[in-house]
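Revision sheet: structure tokens.
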Amino acid sequence: MQKDKTQLPLDSETFLSIRKWYLWALAGIAVTIIVSQILIQLHLSSQLSDSRVINVAGFQRAYSQKLTKELLLIKSDFSKGEIDPKIKELSKTIAIWKHSHIALQNGDIDKGLPNEDDTEILGLFNKLEPHHSAMVQAAETIITSYHNNSLSEASLEQNVTIVLQNEDRFLQLMDDIVNQYDERSKAKLKNLKQKEYLLLCISLLILILEIVFIFKPLSLQIRKTIGDLMQNQVNSDARAKEVQQLYSEKEKSLQELQELNFVIDNASLFASARKDGSIVFISKKFQGLLGITENQLNKPLAEILTTDSGQQEYLREVLKSNRKNVIRTEEIKITTLEGKDFWLDMSIVPMHQSSRQQSILILCSDITERKENSIKVEQLTKQNFEERMLQKKVQASQIVEGQEEERKRIAKDIHDGIGQMLTALKFNIESIDPENKDKTIEKIAYLKTLASDLIKGVRTATFNLTPPELSDHGIFPALQKMTVELSKLTGKTILFDNKTDEHIRFDSLAETNVYRVVQEAVNNAIKYAEASYILVTINFKDDILSVVIDDDGKGFDDSILGQVPKNNSEGGMGLFFMKERIDYINGRLFINSIPGEGTRITINYKTEKEEEHGAE
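Predicted:
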């Protein structure tokens, strides 16, 4: 009777059934995980867009206040005739303000802003539009009149009044818009949470069904299988003892075969001697290497192998020592009768081990070439070590030179900035005449301004030293603190964009050097590039820490980067030591600059990260 091929054994049928349900359960869990990940990724993309929208909307309020402040400064300095820089700054503020206002409504790909389609927010923008247009028109009227040399104090007063009348309402409506953005973001998050809870319940239900219908029956089957295995283990241990006895006997035979094989494989240079050192037999190849004849074999083996008395005495001691059941290996230098030096790898094998007067088998290999090569390798190693030490000395001197340059820079900042302001402060105080009240009031006002600049200079100089945030919390908080403080001290727009959600710590040497390079880049943008807008962006991805510093300064010809500068004019030495610092930690520095269009500096550092989750 032919067996039905479609009929399976019971265990195979059970296994296939369990596997089918198990795959369905895993597929269900996988689907819920994929759906939840899709929802999360969509929400994260939307959240990133919302955060940028809220950020830009918040800056609109700041720019409106900045616009008002600049107009008031122009109004106060109009009679002095020193408003050209303020007019230029006002033009930049108007351009950014108008562009961001349009981008919030119509979207901007470069800024990552989507096209706004919320009718309620667009309605608020429609209410905001008259006030925004009035403020923009008033400011542009002042700028146009100034460029046409037709700006009068009355016209300036009228347009400043228009801006002041519309500013409060503009700020109120922008607050409403920012709040509406925030409410919309919260609603999206709440909706995502509800979907996540639903997917979690489905996943838990699938797990419960797996436990009841799959894992519980499977565990019973496994328990039975383990019981059978344990019984088989007992039987196997009994058989293993028998096998072990056979294996021990096999090992003894194998050891004897290995000794015999060792003798055969190394028989090119060999000799046999008694315990007292007299020769029993020596191979012809060994005789040729030593340069001796059959008539010279009546001497002890130690005297035949070498003519050096010290080497002979050492060989006698080696050959006489009792090494029962022990094979001894020596690397010995010999000197032949012809005065040639050889290195031999000598293996001394005791024979006839049951006898106290056992003979000795000596197996040798000529290792002279290997020894000579070893000496050459040691010489090359020493040479490489000296070169590395010289390289480290050069690096150390460069570090010292960089430190000295940093000290000179700090001293120059104190001398040129703080020192000159203190001198001016002293001369102005000495020149005060109490009897001339008008001049005295004017000089006191000037002294207040000078003292404020002096305080700002001292804060700038001290802040350039190592901040505590760098050692306590790491590179991320330190760079954020630096940008905030420098923005306050200089009045420049210096922003920090952290694109990494985790709190990550790196090697302290790497963090210090990266911080110093970023600090030098920002200081160069402020001092030499005359930038008004600086953006520091930091990211960590695929074990690479990347920091990008962008500025809108006057830029420079980056073809000079391959030259070593003689001084720090235009930040030349600063750029040189920036590259030295990054090279010191095996990082990479890229500098791209176009005259009149700004500069971008990129720092890349690859390392193993040390994460500190939840640390501040």
